[in-house]
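Friendly challenge for the regulars: who can give me the structure tokens for this chain first? No prize, just bragging rights.
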Amino acid sequence: MTGSASKPGVLIDRLSLAAAVLFGAVGMTVLLRPEIAILRLSALGIPAWPVYLAGVLQLLAAGLLIPRNTRIAAAAVIAVTAVLKMVAEWAYREPLSALELLGQATLAILLLILEMRRR
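First reply, four minutes later:
Bragging rights claimed.
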């Protein structure tokens, strides 16, 4: 293949941009509609603030996926946030939501590995 799209670095940059859009949308959804997550956490005896913290962290980390120098830290934050949310969903017996979060964590870990290998 020829052209700039065949370079691994360009593909990682494009994947990071796509992931930033996805994780930004997820973070905004959490912040705009936190009611269900708050009710689920309250059923487990957990206060509401982790829902807002997770949304803000995910939104900020999504923005930090775009610059290359902050990508590793941002991917790590997203992976940890997704795994913690996945555990909460599993505890609430919502395996499909937990599976969705597993996909998000996998994407974040993939970005983390690709960016670490690139350096």
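The mean pLDDT is 89. The radius of gyration is 16 Å. Your move, everyone else.
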